[in-house]
Specification:
The protein has about 375 residues and is α/β, with parallel strands linked by helices. It has helices at about 15-20, 25-50, 60-70, 75-85, 90-95, 105-115, 120-130, 130-135, 245-255, 275-285, 310, 315-325, 325-335, 350-370; strands at about 140-150, 160, 200, 205-210, 220-230, 235-240, 265-270, 285-290. Strands 1, 4, 5, 6, 7 and 8 form a six-stranded mixed beta sheet that branches. A two-stranded antiparallel ribbon has the order 2-3.
Amino acid sequence: MRGGDEQTGALFSYVSCAARVPLDHPLRLIRAVVDEALDVLSPEFDGLYARVGRPGIAPEKLLRALLLQAFYSIRSERQLMEQLDYNLLFRWFVGLSIDAPVWDASTFSKNRDRLLDGDVAQRLLAAVVAQPRIKALMSNEHFSVDGTLIQAWASHKSFQPKPGSDAEPPDGDDPGAPPAGRNAERNWRGQKRSNETHASTTDPDAQLARKSNGQASIMAYAGHVLMENRNGLVAHSCLTHATGTAERDAALALVDRMAPGRRITLGADKGYDVAGFIAALRARRVTPHVALDGRVSKLGVRRRSGVDGRTIRHAGYAASQRVRKRIEEVFGWIKGSAGLRQTKHRGRNRVGWQFDLAVTAYNLIRLPRLLAPVPA
């Protein structure tokens, strides 16, 4: 007998959001890890809010919602709130009951500065990797480092000469010419533009940079991660200006965050094969497993590498060079899934906060497989 297509709703519901989530859903384990990390940060959250006044949205709920945005590639906070309104899985993860109202998307903007002042994203990453079951997955001896460009929310047309510089404006920017619209054509042919003489009027912290020769220059920031080599989890991260030495300077800063102790190894690509950087690593008791940069000059002279035979003769060097390539998986995920191919924020502090949170989301999304029980 065919059933009727009756669409009636019950007056009362006695099923919670948690009951709708399967027991083996990956977000259950991730939620437990996130809650444990947020419990550690709870005393710091108290210092970010006033003791009197109307209670605001809990920072724990805001952070869980932003992690969902990275997990499910939701392109905007407004769309995140729309999905949070009707998605029971999202409601359960954030900590909302089935009939609780969702907040307005502007709440993120109003609370972001408060979370920035507390460096919450960086502390959340540290709280996650400090948990015993996560720490057991990570190596404390072998690491890799690399950097990538995060495209800024600024166009080439915003890259204008700085006040007082001798740089000429591009063709089409003649002060005496009639206005040609807000998106007029520009021509930079034959004109030299550099970060010393130009700056973006949209995002002054962004700089003109390119990752390698033969690639186009973009307005960008430089994101850096320090990855442990056992399971490819990120131990530390940071975001800097996209300068010519940003990768090496950030690598030393990330190494300095490590607790002093036993000697460690650091794998890196040939862009880090610079004598000063290698010497700085050895001074920190770090063995440089850096790829050899043996480029040949136009005169046929091969460049001398800063890494000598004492390092490359060991089997551990070859292992580090093989494993370090997994760091590209981190950059691929945060750009493709977490939406950081081009940031939607302006300013190094805001973009850096978003980068650290995306790196934390990458670690969390890896945990269900790494912590899954081994079948008998």
